[in-house]
From TrEMBL:
The record marks R17 as: Transition state stabilizer. Substrate binds at N71, H77, D84, I98, S99, R108. This is 3-dehydroquinate dehydratase. PANTHER family: CATABOLIC 3-DEHYDROQUINASE. Homododecamer. It comes from the Bacteria. Catalyzes a trans-dehydration via an enolate intermediate. Transmembrane segments: none annotated. The active site is at Y22, H97. NCBIfam families: aroQ (TIGR01088), PRK05395.1-2 (NF003805), PRK05395.1-3 (NF003806), PRK05395.1-4 (NF003807). The keyword Signal does not apply.
């Protein structure tokens, strides 16, 4: 089984960025533990701060992989283009968020991704990615 995790803007700063919200572990360290926990799965990782690169990655893997785990960061609330890219591909997408977006600013309550996603996992820290991966088993 081939899964691609795609992270959006500012998620490259995990471990440094607002640790009270996002925790103190880097995503790279977490990814190693995730890959070790699921050796039967090929778990790839892509991160970009650029909306067009995220769309291009969705299109690249959206017909060949068994699943995509997407944390589009702030683009979740602003990018019709990312939502349209998900609608255009055949690979199922699980939307994840580390923090509970509904306990934060009102603008974070809107998602242009959710209505195209297989499911949405919000607010369980990095475990949100583990739960999303489990949904593909």
């Amino acid at each position: 089984m081939k899964i691609c995790i795609i992270n959006g803007p500012n998620l490259n700063l995990l471990g440094k960025r607002e640790p009270t919200i996002y925790g103190s572990e880097t995503f790279e360290n977490f990814l190693i533990s995730l890959q070790n926990k699921y050796p039967e799965m090929t778990v790839e990782y892509f991160q970009s701060n650029i909306e067009g690169e995220i769309i291009s990655k969705l299109q690249e893997v959206g017909f060949s992989h068994d699943g995509i785990i997407l944390n589009a960061g702030a683009y979740t609330h602003t990018s019709i283009g990312i939502g349209d890219a998900i609608a255009a591909i055949t690979t199922p997408v699980v939307e994840v968020h580390i923090s509970n977006t509904f306990s934060r600013e009102t603008f974070r309550h809107q998602s242009y991704i959710s209505n195209h996603a297989k499911g949405v996992i919000i607010g369980f820290g990095l475990k949100s990615y583990t739960l999303a991966l489990e949904s593909f088993k």
